[in-house]
Design goal:
By secondary structure, the protein is mostly helical. It has one domain. It has four helices and no strands. It starts with a helix and ends in a 5-residue tail after the last helix. The model has no long low-confidence stretch (mean pLDDT 90).
């Protein structure tokens, strides 16, 4: 996921690897706190973590709120997980 995040942010050096790894861990923690069970071997969940971590990295400069795209992705992932646990009938 670190390489995916670095590519998203346009970072080519290893100078920020430790800090970016912390952002990835924080993103996983925050997503889990929202009630989502992550499978970090699944590309969709890895992408979600990377999107969240990239937002955390970018917001440190100007502090914008969570992008609607990210909020929708989180909501869709949570709803999909919760629907798997229900039965029709």
């Amino acid at each position: 996921m670190l390489e995916m995040l670095k590519y998203d942010l346009g970072i080519t050096t290893t100078a920020y690897d430790y800090r970016l790894t912390q952002y990835l861990e924080n993103a996983q923690t925050e997503i889990t706190r929202e009630g989502i069970s992550l499978d970090t071997t699944a590309i969709g969940d890895m992408s979600l973590v990377v999107m969240y971590a990239a937002w955390l990295w970018r917001k440190r400069a100007d502090g914008p709120g969570m992008p609607r795209m990210l909020r929708y992705a989180l909501n869709n992932r949570l709803f999909a997980e919760k629907m798997k646990g229900t039965t029709n009938g």
